[in-house]
Structure formats: structure tokens, C-alpha cells
Design brief:
alpha/beta, Dimethylsulfoxide Reductase, domain 2, single chain, binds molybdenum atom, five-stranded parallel β-sheet, Barwin-like endoglucanases, about 550 residues, binds ligand MGD
């Protein structure tokens, strides 16, 4: 969101899902959409069946990579080196889109100078990707009539995640692969309503509709609607909150629908800080590990099919959620619980129904103004921006950049000079293996919502290692090993996985009751976005004893 907002002014994916079907080239960069975003990937597969080329950039030959025309198996954390090499190759092959660069961008000269050192040879040496694969992707992306670049956590969960995103945006600016049907930049969102949460202002520096909290005119609107004085300072993002807890500046926390006692990097530190708070309140459907640490647990949440409202997906589409079941027992819709809390805090919040709440948003957030409840019901979903009830916005963003009239084009999209930076934690003799963590198809995040599901085919936590490392370490499938990092250790059975290259090991974070993987991860964070480096820790594997198996 931060990277896209820097370049284009809006922190949203530029394209609609079904535009993928119109693309000639699709690059999935650090995204295992086959298992993590199956609905979007279904559109990608339709394009592939039609003849589109699929490139996958991932250190593992992931489930997604197995569908690719070409897999670029780079070393963890070398994405900027790869993107800069691709950029240089496009420039040296005379495949830049001069028309777009001239009319819609700024800073091209400085960018071109900065990638000049990234020859194919150097790029290949740093990333581990063969030079001919880098060249093939560069030419395919630049020559395509419409190319899409999609990314997720393989790009963002690094200490320099925003720079990673900027390095990918540069490629779209260089070739004009944005602001047109079928082309675009898509950061796929994790949960069904991550985009919606941000749109509604659940960000430390934004009011609903991405209006800045530092913008006095925007605040004045909210002040008069709400009858309060909205603070003018940016708040803290998640990792800054933990730092503030450590300093003693943050003493009470209200957690709604999140399980940081298991999902935070360097989780031992996170748990200690949560335990030391003066007051911790948790509102959740389940009694999570975080709730176990709380002073007050509000166990009242109705789940998504037991409440009304909207969710907004990665293509910026606001969709209605309708209550299908009554919540069990005393469980209530989250909004009712929040309204009750507000009333007890002395604010007389009264809404007759969900539509009235939505209409308040429409009055305050211009990009939602045209989405009446009736239209949302009738149309089965509306994408933002939707400034008026008769607006006919195109399904993609930033078409303005192609306009002939400079006034309509507005602010040019800046190229960014981004420098390659290795992961915070270097490999060493003591910790010689690169651990990256991620997801599997049949489990969900910290396991709270998928933990009860049992199947004979379902794997528990494993430490996945390459066949080469298995041979070198004398390990075979099922053997129990100790995995240690500078922060902690966990015991897990080995799974030998040919999708991994030598030196790279993989774990999920789905089974924290059995194996608490975030004991190992590092909480180095991107200062601009606050995202932790879940994707790059340095670890060691030790055999426990010869007959330890599970
Ligand atoms: N089945 C299932 N689906 C889910 C979830 C789930 O838990 N289970 N969770 C949801 C959520 S919250 C999210 S945010 C999304 C996440 O969806 P994804 O981001 O697709 O999932 P991950 O497996 O975390 O990471 C994606 C890929 O990044 C790669 N990677 C690691 N390091 C690097 C690197 O340095 N460079 C590059 N280029 N790639 C790298 C990993 O090998 C991995 O294949 O999934 C959502 N969907
Ligand atoms: N090692 C490692 N760690 C990671 C990651 C990684 O790739 N590797 N990925 C990170 C990412 S991308 C994410 S998103 C986080 C996920 O981390 P979390 O969001 O902390 O984990 P979840 O398991 O998704 O927890 C969601 C909680 O919301 C509750 N819930 C569900 N629906 C509702 C509702 O309607 N109302 C209320 N009140 N509660 C509800 C569920 O019961 C559950 O307890 O983990 C992060 N941690
Ligand atoms: Mo996520």
C-alpha cells in the first residue's frame, strides 16, 4: 500500500481480477497464489489456457511456479537486484515506452543511471537466476500488449518491503504496463477484508477513504460529523506499537480479530510485552493465545456468516455480506459490541441499521459516495473509486496517466532509485541456512480457524529442506530435528522437498501449539510500512538423536 501510494497516490491494486484473462504476460512475484489466492489464480489459469505466458519469481518452486512457463528461483531478499537487472535489460534492448515515460512519469534519468550497474551477469550472480531467464522475462514483459505484475508477501515481508514494491513499480512505468485494461500492478490482499480495513481508515495515518489525518480540511469534515476533535498526529502501526510497549509509552491495548501472541515475529518478545501491559482487551470468536493473556475477553463475536456488512477485496470491490445464520448463544455482531462500548464511554452512537452506518461513510469518503446500499445490493459489488451514483469509472486505476491533457494527467508517477539490500540477518557458520516462512493450502494463518480440521492427508508443521541439504546433513523424511535461530529454537520433523534449492528451508506458522515458528523469526521491520521480515531468518538444523522420528 505504501509503495503504490508513493508512486500513484492511491494504495490499491490497479486491476480487476478478470483483466488477468486479457493479459499476454502475467508475472507472479513472491506470490503463491495457487494456494493462497485460488480465486484470483483461477483467472490467471484462464489466461494461461488462452496462451498467456506465466512467469513466477520465487525462491521455492512453489505450487504456483509449477504452472509457470518459466520459474525464476532467486535467492531470498534479492528481488531489487533482479528488478533492476530487468529494468536495465529493457532499457538496453530499446523496449521502454517512451511515450508513457515522457507524458506520465518523472525521474527517469536518475533511475536509468542507477540500474546501469545491473548487467545481466551481475544480476545473475547476486540473484542466482540464470542470465537468459532474466532476459527472457524482461523482453516478454516489455513486449507484451498487456502485462500484469502481481505480488504478495515474498515482496512485502522484508525489512525493505516498500523498496521492493517500488522496484516493481519502476518496471511498469518503464514499459507503460499500467493504466490500461489488462495491464497493471496487483498486490493481492491476504484476508477477505484487508483492503476494506485500510479503506475504512484502519491505518495509523489515514481517515476513511485514504484521507490524511494530518490534513486539516479532511479532519474538519470528520470533526463536524462526529462531534469530536480528531487527533492530528499519525498513530503507530503494529510494530511501532510493540516498540512503544517496550518504552512504556503504550500501556493498554484493544485487540479485535487478531492473534499477535502467535503471529508476531520474534514472538517471545511480543508475548512478554503483551503480558506487561496494564490493560489488554481481546474481542474474538475463539479463546486465542492472545485472549489467554488478556485482562478482559469479549467472547462475543458473531462470525462473518452471522453478521451483516460489507467486505472489500483486492480488486477494490465492495461487496455486501448478509447474515445467513443466527449467532450462537450470546454472540453478537462486532459492530453492536463496539457501539455498546462507545455508549459506555459517553458517546451516544445511534444507528437504526447497517445502511445508516454505511451512509455515514458515503458522506465522509468521496471514493465511496456513489455506492448506495441499494446499488450494492443490486449490482453484487462496486469497485472504488465511485464518486457519484451515476459514475462510470473504468475497472482499472490510473488511466489518467495516458491522457493528452496535462491537467487531466495530474501528478506524474515518479520513478524510484532503489538500492539492493540483503536481509537484515546474514548467514554465518553458526546459522548457515536461510529460513523463509509461508503458507500451505489446507491451513489458515495461526491455525485458530483451521486447527480443528483433521484429515489423514494433512501435514502438521515440518521443516522443509532441499534434497541436497538432506544428503549433506544425513537427514531423511520424518526425522526430528532442532531448528535454532539467534532468538529461539523449535523441534520439528524433516520433510525433504524438491521444490527447495540448497541452503533454503521453509516452515509455515499454522501450528503454533505444536511448533511455535515465530520463536525463530526476526522482528526487523520496514520503517515505512511496519512489516516484519518473516521471509528471511538465519537458522541452523541439528539432528536430535538417531531414533527420534514422528
Ligand atoms: N491456504 C491459505 N491461504 C491463505 C492464507 C493461509 O494461511 N492459508 N493466508 C492469507 C493471508 S493473511 C495472506 S497475507 C496471503 C499470503 O499469500 P502469499 O504471499 O502468496 O503466501 P506466502 O506463502 O506467505 O508467501 C508467498 C511466497 O513468497 C515466497 N518468498 C519468500 N521469500 C521470498 C523472497 O525473498 N523473494 C520472493 N520473490 N519470494 C519470496 C515464498 O517462497 C512463498 O511461496 O495468503 C492468504 N491466503
Ligand atoms: N512466520 C510468519 N508469521 C506471519 C506471517 C508469515 O508469513 N510468516 N504472515 C503474517 C500475516 S500476512 C498475517 S495476516 C498474520 C495473521 O495473523 P493473525 O491475524 O494474528 O492470525 P489469524 O489466525 O488470522 O487470527 C485472526 C483472528 O481473528 C478472529 N476472527 C475471525 N473472524 C472474526 C470476526 O468476525 N470478528 C472478530 N472479532 N474476530 C474474528 C479469529 O478467531 C482469529 O483469532 O500473520 C503474520 N505472521
Ligand atoms: Mo496476511
Amino acid at each position: 500500500m505504501v509503495g503504490l501510494a508513493t508512486v500513484f497516490g492511491a494504495g490499491g491494486g490497479t486491476s480487476s481480477y478478470d483483466e488477468a484473462e486479457a493479459a499476454d504476460v502475467i508475472v507472479m512475484w513472491g506470490s503463491n497464489a495457487r494456494i493462497a489466492h485460488p480465486i484470483f489464480f483461477h483467472h490467471v489459469l484462464k489466461a494461461v489456457n488462452r496462451g498467456a505466458k506465466l512467469y513466477v519469481v520465487d525462491p521455492r518452486r512453489s505450487e504456483t511456479a509449477q504452472f509457470a512457463d518459466r520459474w525464476l528461483g532467486l535467492h531470498v531478499g534479492t528481488d531489487i537486484a533482479l528488478a533492476n537487472s530487468i529494468g536495465r535489460e529493457i532499457i538496453h534492448s530499446d523496449l521502454t515506452c517512451e511515450d508513457f515515460i515522457g507524458r506520465a512519469t518523472s525521474g527517469y534519468e536518475a533511475y536509468a543511471a542507477s540500474v546501469e550497474e545491473w548487467t545481466l551477469d551481475r544480476g545473475s550472480e547476486v540473484t542466482g537466476v540464470p542470465a537468459d531467464a532474466i532476459r527472457e522475462l524482461a523482453l516478454a514483459y516489455a513486449k507484451a500488449d498487456a502485462a500484469q505484475l502481481c505480488w504478495t508477501l515474498g515482496i512485502t515481508e522484508h525489512h525493505n518491503g516498500v523498496d521492493n514494491v517500488l522496484s516493481l513499480c519502476n518496471l511498469a512505468l518503464l514499459t507503460g504496463q499500467v493504466g490500461r485494461y489488462g495491464a497493471g500492478l496487483s498486490p493481492l490482499r491476504g484476508q477477505n477484508n484487508v483492503q476494506g480495513g485500510g479503506d475504512m481508515g484502519a491505518l495509523p495515518n489515514k481517515l476513511p477513504g485514504f484521507q490524511d489525518v494530518t490534513d486539516g480540511a479532511a479532519r474538519a469534515k470528520f470533526d463536524s460529523e462526529w462531534g469530536v476533535s480528531v487527533p492530528s498526529d499519525n498513530g503507530w502501526h503494529l510494530t511501532q506499537m510493540f516498540d512503544a510497549m517496550e518504552r512504556g509509552d503504550l500501556r493498554s491495548v484493544f485487540v479485535i480479530g487478531e492473534n499477535p501472541a502467535q503471529s508476531e515475529a520474534d514472538v517471545s518478545r511480543a508475548v512478554t510485552l503483551l503480558e506487561n501491559l496494564d490493560h489488554l482487551v481481546v474481542l474474538d470468536i475463539h479463546l486465542t493465545k492472545t485472549a489467554e493473556l488478556a485482562d478482559v475477553v469479549l467472547p462475543g463475536s458473531a462470525s462473518w456468516c452471522e453478521s451483516d456488512g460489507t467486505v472489500t477485496n483486492s480488486e477494490r470491490r465492495v461487496q455486501r455480506v448478509r447474515k445467513a445464520l443466527d449467532p450462537p448463544g450470546d454472540a453478537r455482531d462486532d459492530i453492536e459490541i463496539l457501539l455498546d462500548i462507545a455508549r459506555r464511554l459517553g458517546h451516544n452512537w445511534q444507528y437504526a441499521n447497517h445502511e445508516e452506518i454505511w451512509d455515514e461513510l458515503r458522506r465522509l469518503s468521496p471514493m465511496h459516495a456513489g455506492m448506495s446500499w441499494t446499488r450494492l445490493n443490486d449490482l453484487g459489488g462496486i469497485q472504488w473509486p465511485c464518486p457519484s451514483e451515476d459514475s462510470l469509472e473504468p475497472p482499472y486505476l490510473h488511466g489518467r496517466l495516458w491522457a493528452d491533457d496535462p491537467a487531466e494527467r495530474g501528478r506524474p508517477a515518479p520513478f524510484s532509485v532503489v538500492l539492493d539490500e540483503p536481509p537484515t540477518e546474514a548467514l554465518s557458520d553458526e546459522y548457515p541456512l536461510r529460513l523463509t516462512t509461508g503458507r500451505r493450502l489446507d491451513s489458515y494463518n495461526t491455525g485458530v480457524q483451521s486447527g480443528a480440521y483433521r484429515s489423514p492427508n494433512r501435514l502438521g508443521e515440518t521443516i522443509d529442506i532441499s534434497p541436497e541439504d538432506a544428503t549433506a546433513l544425513g537427514l531423511s523424511d520424518g526425522e526430528l530435528v532442532r531448528v535454532s535461530s539467534r532468538r529461539g529454537d523449535v523441534d520439528a520433523p524433516v520433510r525433504v522437498d524438491p521444490a527447495l534449492r540448497a541452503g533454503l528451508v521453509f516452515m509455515t506458522f499454522h501450528f503454533p501449539d505444536e511448533v511455535d515458528v515465530n520463536q525463530l523469526t526476526i522482528d526487523a521491520t520496514d520503517p515505512k510500512a511496519g512489516t516484519a521480515e518473516f521471509k528471511a531468518a538465519a537458522v541452523r538444523i541439528d539432528k536430535l538423536h538417531d531414533d527420534a522420528r514422528i
